[in-house]
Amino acid sequence: MGVFASIRSKFDGATKTRSSFWGVKLKSCESSDLSFNEDLFERDSVFKRIRKASLKKKLIVAGSALFSIGAIAAGAFLYLTYGVDWQMLEDERIARNYIPSNEIASITSSLRLTRKGKAVFYATAPELQKNTVFNVFCGRDSNKDAYTLGCYYSGDDSEHIYIFDQGMGQFDENGLQYNFADGRKMTALHEMLHAAYDRLDDNKKEETCSKLRIVTGRIKELGKELELYPEEQICSESFSRVGTEYIPRFNAVSANISLTGFSLSDEEKKAINDLSSLYNKYFDIKNPGLIDAYWRNRNNLDDYLKKIVDRSDELQKQYYIAQEAIDRYYSNPTKENYDKARKEDDLYSQMYDEVDNMVISYQKVFVIEDSEKLLIGDGYIVI
After folding, report:
1. CA distance linking residue 145 with residue 138, whole number of Å
2. With contact defined as beta carbons under 8 Å apart, do 147 and 371 qualify?
């Protein structure tokens, strides 16, 4: 049998960066000149001094009151505007022109996005696309062992998220189960986080990236996968991968996906806590249904691949057993040796067909997820 290589999925990150142009201007307010008419006080000098002193005191009190009212008004204005998320308001303004399809609306609901996360997602006008159209927007992969499930594009005037429409089917064949609808949801969340990272200012990006390096340095498998990306895409890709796949696990939202055996340093704990707070601004990181479904899919594939490898090892052993029995028959062609050889050879053929069918089922999942391939029976064609 051939060597079965696990196909790694790959996501394209942002190709351009859009900076925020929103700011707040506070208008300065100048009070009118306050004066009184000296001609109103033509009596004796004592009375004049008393009246002027009294009026001066009243002007001071009045001025203080005006200043206090102005200060209160300015304070109230600052209070009401200081915490305003102008980027979110701009995203919501753009999103008002977007009408999601029923499927996109359903995906959005399942992600349990915050107001800010939904604004980011809808501002990118997300679309589900079939093979041909998706390949036009997201490009084709140069690596034959990789495939793209979604992409986020940010240009000068617009930005878009494209998600490959794998369908909503439940794959169940030869003991392998996989839910493609769950895969679409995680792709949508992954790409939304690319857009969210794109919106961070340079200082926040640098701060976030340094924390992501701490976390990805702790997860060897993820660290190796990130090496496949260009240097300029690593931080954005890390932000999406850590947010969707690992932060919920570090927060142990479910016993099914919690990470065990990790002894975290104080620096690692702080990085995880800070990143958790940032991700919570976009989606509920304690959404066990979504995260459980993702890892159920992934673990099903990993476990199934292990079964294929183990069964292939058994097949190889059976090959030598059958070959030995056949050789024994040819050297001593008795009825007993013939029956033994026939039995071992039939068992080998049965095991071969079993392994072959398992491999086909395993490959089908990746063919369905690959926009550049079209499943035809037990095989596929490249489109």
Report:
1. 17
2. yes
Q: In this predicted model, what pLDDT tens digit does every residue of 85-116 receive, in sequence order?
A: 889 999 999 999 999 999 999 999 999 999 99
pLDDT of 22 above 80: no
Distance, in Å, from the CA atom of 211 to the CA atom of 197, rounded to the nearest integer, reads 13
Of residues 197 and 76, more confidently modeled: 197
- The answer to whether the beta carbons of residues 121 and 161 sit under 8 Å apart is yes
Cα separation, 164 vs 72, whole angstroms: 54
For 246-279, write each residue's pLDDT tens digit. 887 777 644 454 555 567 788 988 999 999 999 9
Q: Once rounded to an integer, what is the mean pLDDT over residues 24-40?
A: 33
> What is the reported pLDDT for 252?
61
Can you give the pLDDT at residue 173?
Answer: 94
52-61, 242-251, 292-301, 341-350: least confidently modelled range: 52-61
Secondary structure in 3-state letters for the chain: CCCCCCCEEEEECCCCCCCCCCCCCCCCCCCCCCCCCHHHCCCCHHHHHHHHHHHHHHHHHHHHHHHHHHHHHHHHHHHHHHCCCHHHHHHHHHHCCCCCCHHHHHHHHHHCECHHHHHHHHHCCCEEECHHHHHHHHCCCCCCCEEEEEEEEECCCCEEEEEECCCCCEEEECCEEEEHHHHHHHHHHHHHHHHHHHHCCHHHHHHHHHHHHHHHCCCHHHHHHHCCCCHHHHHHHHHHHHHHHHHHHHCCCCCCCCCCCCCCCHHHHHHHHHHHHHHCCCECCCCHHHHHHHHHHHHHHHHHHHHHHHHHHHHHHHHHHHHHHHHHHHHCCCHHHHHHHHHHHHHHHHHHHHHHHHHHHHHHHHHHHCCCEEEECCEEEEC
Mean pLDDT of 14-31: 30
- Identity of the amino acid at 300: N
Q: Which fold has domain 296-382?
A: Methane Monooxygenase Hydroxylase; Chain G, domain 1 (1.20.58)
Confidence category of residue 363, pLDDT binned at 50, 70, 90 = very high
Give the Cα-Cα-Cα angle 72, 78, 81 (nearest 5 degrees): 140
